[in-house]
Amino acid sequence: AYSSSRLSTDQQRIDHFNQLIERCKLPGLQRVRPAHVLPDTTNRAMTGLSVHHVHYIASKMEAEGFTPRTDDGRGHDIPIVVQESDETKLGSESLSKWTRVVSKEAQFAPMSADFTPKQFYTSLGNGHFFQALNLFRTESPRMFGEDPYTKYSPWRDHRLTEAITQGIEACLLYTSPSPRDS
Fold it and tell me: Tens of pLDDT along 13-55?
């Protein structure tokens, strides 16, 4: 059971986090292509993501179809991403870690050929979702199913193809300096 002082401390942390988001986000939602998103280093201790969970989400998208976010709240969550580069501490750590993970674990989608370390995004809480989309983007082999040589294909689902090629609407946070200060 939580004591009232513990609950107050938790509420203060939530309020502080919400204030930081409000101060650091760009207005509205921005389209972010999954090819330019990698997990941040604060997710899980070892890989940042579970390869099994990434494939599970991809298999659900494949079986049930991709459901984009709608105005009435249906579909996927609104992802929160941070605009990064290899010049920031978190960006450099995240890029280095994800590059190592992808080189060791072939069942993750490879990084995009047009990925640039000067501007990319780290995901806060939606890394599995973005990497599941990247399995389709790269037409990677499926982990689950009877035929291990079957690959994910985005071309059977126009909403999935659009999510990969046009991007996902996300809440975009920036690192300093603020674009508003320019």
Answer: 778 777 877 888 888 889 999 999 999 876 555 557 899 999 9
Question: What distance in Å separates the CA atoms of residue 168 and residue 145, rounded to the nearest whole number?
Answer: 27
Residues linked to residue 127 through DSSP beta bridges, in sequence order: none
The rounded distance, in Å, linking the Cα atoms of 55 and 138 is: 13
- CB neighbour list of residue 153: distance below 8 Å, 6 or more residues apart: 136, 139
User: How far apart (Å, rounded) are the C-alpha atoms in residues 22 and 19?
Assistant: 5
With contact defined as beta carbons under 8 Å apart, do 122 and 88 qualify?
A: no
pLDDT in tens, 169-182: 999 988 754 444 44
Q: What tokens were used for 30?
A: 């921005």
The strand ranges marked E within 114-162 are 120-123
As a whole number of angstroms, the distance between CA 178 and CA 182 comes to: 7
